[in-house]
Amino acid sequence: MKPSALAERLMAARSKGRKLLVPYLTAGYPDSATTTRAMALFGEAGADAIELGVPFSDPLADGPVIAAASQRALAGGMTVRRAIALGEAREGSPPRVLFTYLNPLLSLGPTGAAGALSRAGFGGALVADLPFDEGEDLRADFAAEDLPLIPLAAPTTPLDRLRALGRRAQGFVYLIARTGVTGAGAGADRRLEERIATLREATTLPIVVGFGIADPDSAGRAAEIADGVVVGSALVERLGKEGPQAAADWLAELRAALDRG
User: Which of 51, 80, 192, 241 has the fewest CB atoms within 10 Å around its CB?
Assistant: First the structure.
């Protein structure tokens, strides 16, 4: 399978020794204008891709910070269609990855969702409640638009299943650092290094670690064994309390820590 444009871009960065930095934003939090401004600033701060989350009323993986951000965004009228429009690619911006649950995508229909993301210039999507070995119709429609469906791997995933996930992965692999929901401040699962080694047996795609990345130190430690990090709750919290420039300044600190190695 030919790598997607997103995978090729991230793999090219990795081949130059760069650790990948993938910030997460909730679309419409605290409002649409702030989301748009933050995406631009995050690109300037050194993001390699940006996850734009569709607020969802019944999330399975979101901790209190992102769940509260989603509720505020929903109250402000954010929908999956508006989130896609909000994330439309700008010239020179990092690729966007839509972070969503399955129901919002199905509300558009598989073909409609793939077409909408392609027209908006997205690089792919991550569907948090879609197992990697299900949803073939959706995967086919997305593949027709060169849009990978990025898999989530858990620290509890059996090793045989993890290898199968790696073999079928597209875009990159998002490896969850610990059990539980999103949120900063908790340590990584002790099995993380073993999971990364297992995935590397099965895929050449970048492996990024998320859940619990709270500061430059935790980002640097995770990137020692992975190809990069996703940062969500700690960034969303700063964005809501201090605004987009302060959030971008903090993201730049993470970028500097990754570059130091």
Answer: 241
